[in-house]
Design goal:
Number of strands of chain A: 0
Largest sheet of chain A: none
Helix content of chain A: over 70%
Largest sheet of chain B: none
Strand content of chain B: under 5%
Order of helices and strands of chain B: HHHHHHHHHH
Shape of chain A: globular
Order of helices and strands of chain A: HHHHHHHHHHHHH
Helix content of chain B: over 70%
Oligomer: heterodimer
Number of helices of chain B: 10
Strand content of chain A: under 5%
Distance between the termini of chain A: 39 Å
Number of domains of chain B: 1
Structural class of chain B: mainly alpha
């Protein structure tokens, strides 16, 4: 019996990372989250300044709309069901942070570790993949929620945006969408292992989703051919249902169908995403490319 | 005298070889991931299209009477595409220095590069040249697509265009150096750069007429982009001659010289702060 085995069998280190247990997973989770928190503290100024980004985005949008309409919102209200264009934008912005987060947190965490050359080491530790994936998203999910609250606060304070409507439905849509997005994030993490340099691809997806799903407009203004693609993406229905819940705007398809699509996405995407991640990770292991960048 | 053109003895040629060496590294990394050029070329296009469709949502066409009333240009597709084009050139100079410094710090090679007998100017600038080349390639593709889809009416006076773009690059270089200085001290300046870019974008009135800024528009006078974009649009969309844009070019030249000297002095100061703290190589 080797010395390590003796120590393990003696029971003195039952909660250590070598023998997996719920408490060891929790400690690993905390350790990984702590890394992010240390990183945040180290670059605190960067984080704090980032919180004010929404203000500039909202201001740019406001000025652009005023610059091209001069306050005449007839065309907009016909399609949007509201004249409050800032509320219309902010509603979509509830998703922007989470879309970015789902893409960047996992995919870019992996890329970061590959760049620093620690990915293979982290993967070899006796920690469940699910724990690792949750740890990679947890802190950024927290920051995204803070960021989203900043968007809402600034929109309320500076532009007088307030939401009425079916807030219960809003919460349901947000919950289902966030679950789907993180499911997509799992899939994306696997893709990042395969692609290595996922940075540009992430930016591309982050830009193409608002374009196709109509973050700042109704997809009805898109060319018909593009609308076909938009209607395949569940996120389109998330935004559409949210706008309906807030502004009573007409939906693209019956509301019950939109909700069903969101529910199916929330159920399938996390499972499919996790399965895909595991498959792509083992493929990289077989090919010996896990530690490469 | 044994190695007159080696890196140990600084000369114009040795500095050029440094630029070439860095460019080769970047080209090598870029070509290692062949999908990157594709994503990069589409990135700007998606931004443009998103703006255009937002415009259509609000006015129902590719023409805004309000924009025409305030600027004399109603075709908002051209208005935004040309503004965006100028912004991409300035943006490269603004972000490349900070980006490359951060990259060197992450990879742990900044201190070694700093200690090498290479002029600081060359170290800070070398990546910009290659990035400018890429931006030109991507902008050409974007303009081609815009012409294919929207068929705008443009009258390019190439001489004026080149002068405006050159001065845009030079005038924004000072902001780039400032961001570089901030990166040396604060290490991670990504969000600072993001917010600064947003502020410049608003004050340059790239997406809207300057008139909607009201009293705040006075601040635009201190932003080089404002003059670049105004001159660029005037030349391409309103048939302005070179003589007509000379006042804007004078301001851009002033920014290129005065601001550059000031920002370089600030950079040296911030660099010495990092050196005193012994944090130059840290990230």
């Amino acid at each position: 019996m080797g010395s390590t085995e003796k120590v393990l069998n003696s029971g003195h280190v039952s909660g250590c990372l070598v023998t997996r247990s719920p408490s060891s997973e929790l400690r690993a989770l905390w350790a990984l989250i702590n890394v992010d928190l240390i990183h945040l503290r180290r670059y605190l100024l960067n984080f704090l300044i980032g919180l004010f980004t929404p203000f500039f985005l909202l201001l740019t949008y406001y000025l652009t709309v005023m610059g091209i309409t001069g306050g005449d919102l007839t065309q907009f209200s016909r399609l949007a069901g509201t004249r409050d264009f800032m509320a219309y934008l902010v509603a979509s912005y509830l998703f922007v942070g989470y879309v970015s987060n789902a893409l960047w947190s996992m995919g870019e965490s992996l890329r970061g570790m590959m760049v620093w050359g620690v990915f293979e080491v982290v993967i070899m530790t006796p920690i469940r993949r699910a724990t690792l994936l949750i740890a990679w998203t947890f802190t950024s999910f927290l920051f995204t929620t803070i960021y989203t609250l900043m968007v809402l606060t600034m929109a309320w304070l500076v532009f007088g945006v307030s939401f009425t409507g079916n807030l219960l439905l809003v919460l349901l849509v947000l919950l289902l969408t966030v679950i789907s997005l993180y499911g997509f994030g799992f899939f994306y993490a696997g893709f990042a292992i395969l692609l290595k340099e996922s940075h540009k691809f992430t930016s591309f997806i982050q830009n193409i989703l608002p374009l196709l799903c109509g973050f700042t407009y109704s997809i009805l203004v898109l060319p018909r051919e593009v609308q076909v693609i938009s209607r395949i993406i569940p996120l389109t229905y998330s935004i559409d249902t949210l706008r309906h819940a807030l502004f009573d705007s007409p939906t693209l398809i019956p509301l019950s169908h939109e909700l069903l699509i969101l529910l199916i996405s929330a159920l399938i995407l996390p499972i499919l995403g996790y399965w895909t991640y595991l498959r792509l990770e083992s493929k990289a292991k077989r090919e010996g490319t896990l530690g490469r960048y | 005298m044994a190695a007159p053109s080696s890196l140990c003895r600084r000369s114009f040629w040795s500095e050029l070889r440094v630029v070439w060496a860095f460019s080769r590294i970047n080209l090598l990394v870029y070509s290692r991931y062949p999908l990157n050029p594709f994503f990069d070329s589409i990135w700007t296009m998606t931004n443009i299209f998103q703006l255009v469709f937002t415009g259509v949502m609000f006015v129902g066409a590719y023409y805004s009477t309000e924009l025409s009333r305030l600027t004399g240009i109603g075709d908002f597709v051209s208005y935004w595409v040309l503004g965006g084009l100028v912004m991409t050139y300035g943006g490269i100079t603004l972000s490349t220095i900070a980006g490359s410094l951060r990259q060197e710090m992450q990879q742990g090679t900044l201190e070694s590069c700093w200690m090498a007998p290479i002029r600081r100017f060359v170290l800070l600038t070398n990546r910009i040249l290659l990035n400018l080349l890429w931006v030109t390639v991507f902008n050409t593709i974007n303009v081609f697509v815009v012409f294919l889809i929207f068929k705008p009416v443009w009258n390019p006076d190439w001489f004026s265009i080149i002068i405006i773009l050159l001065l845009t690059i030079l005038s924004n270089y000072s902001f780039g150096i400032l961001m570089g200085g901030l990166t040396v001290v604060s290490k991670n300046s990504g969000q600072i750069l993001g917010v600064w870019s947003e502020v410049l974008m608003i004050l340059s009135a790239y997406q809207f007429p300057i008139a909607v800024l009201g009293e705040w528009s006075v601040l635009s006078n201190f932003v080089p982009y404002y003059y670049s974009i105004r001159a660029f649009r005037a030349v391409v969309l309103q048939n302005a001659t070179f003589q007509m844009i000379i006042p804007d070019l004078v301001f851009l030249t002033l920014f290129s010289t005065v601001f550059l000297a000031l920002s370089y002095a600030v950079f040296k100061r911030l660099e010495s702060v990092a050196k005193r703290r012994g944090s130059l190589g840290f990230y």
